[in-house]
Specification:
The chain has four helices and no strands. With 85 residues, the chain is an all-alpha fold. It is elongated.
Length: 85
């Protein structure tokens, strides 16, 4: 038989999981609203947010991404807007 302490701990975990799910849903709605204001897709804003988080954590994320993008451009060559149209 489970003790009252264990039952309370399990209930606490369940309550916190429900709170996290609620916050995640709120964040998803906020991302959708902000991306609409910026006229970009929510997935693109999520990528931007992830990059900001990585940059804040390590301070090198933007430079690393820039290096990757420079490499890709070197491989495929620069494209101007006329070619893309």
């Amino acid at each position: 038989m489970l003790s009252r302490k264990i039952k309370d701990a399990i209930e606490d975990v369940l309550n916190r999981k429900a709170a996290i799910a609620s916050m995640q849903e709120g964040i998803k709605e906020d991302v959708k609203a902000i991306s609409g204001e910026l006229d970009i897709k929510p997935a693109q804003l999520n990528k931007i947010l992830s990059l900001i988080e990585k940059e804040r954590a390590s301070g090198e994320a933007v430079q690393e991404e820039r290096g990757i993008l420079d490499f890709v451009e070197e491989v495929v060559g620069p494209r101007n807007n006329e070619e893309a149209a």
